[in-house]
Amino acid sequence: MPGEVFAQMKAEKQKALLLLTQQIIDPNAPKLTYAEIAEQAGISERQLFRWRTNDGEFAQARKEIVESYADELIADAFMALKYQVSRNKNVKAAEVLLKSRGMLVDRKEVAGELKHEHSDVSKQDNNALMDELEALKRKLSGE
After folding, report:
1. Which residues of 72-85 are buried (b: 16+ CB within 10 A; e: fewer)?
2. Backbone torsions φ then ψ of 137, nearest 5 degrees
3. Which of these, 52, 25, 28, 26, lies nearest to 38 by C-alpha position?
4. Which distant-in-sequence residues (6+ apart) come within 8 Å of 101 by Cβ?
5. Residue 92 and residue 132: Cα distance in Å, rounded?
6. How large is the angle between the packed helices 56-86 and 91-100, nearest 10 degrees?
7. How many CB atoms lie within 10 A of CB 113?
8. How far, rounded to the nearest angstrom, does the alpha carbon of residue 100 sit from its chain's CA centroid?
9. pLDDT tens column, 49-62
10. Angle at the Cα of 91 (from 89 to 93), degrees rounded to 5?
11. Which segments of the chain does DSSP mark as H helices, in order?
12. How many other CB atoms sit within 10 Å of the CB of residue 53?
């Protein structure tokens, strides 16, 4: 469902936007060239280019449409996951579902000691700083 920005647009802008996004959303939609889209929307190809490249309202409305479609896909994906979890007892599907809801998080613990050798850089000249930087690089690379 298009959002508020889309609703405020003129008809030819809406038409051009729908024709452009239709090709993203529907894999079975006919592949139209920019010239064909412009013709069907009743605008010039140059105008379509300006909207696509320089028009924030056009970009925002396009984003709204694509996000709305993505929301529909997510709902379908959750239904498929629900089926996999409940009917097939699919543990991986359960994991994906829980992770997507932030209820399951992969954690890695890192143990170690952090040593910080601080030098007052305000009192060093450029060459001394470069030498210290090279020494740190060697330490990091394990030399």
Report:
1. eeeeeeeeebeebb
2. -65, -40
3. 52
4. none
5. 49
6. 140
7. 4
8. 16
9. 999 999 999 999 98
10. 95
11. 4-7, 11-25, 34-41, 45-54, 56-86, 91-100, 126-141
12. 9
27's tokens: 């894999």
pTM greater than the 0.90 cutoff: no
- What tens-digit pLDDT sequence spans the chain (143 residues)? 567 888 888 999 999 999 998 877 887 888 999 999 999 999 999 999 999 999 999 999 988 888 877 777 777 777 777 777 788 887 777 777 677 767 777 777 777 776 666 666 666 678 888 888 888 888 888 76
| Dist CA 27 CA 18 (whole Å) | 14
Write the single-letter amino acid at 102: G
Output the six-digit token pair for 71.
């929301």
Which residue has tokens 């970009």? Answer: 59
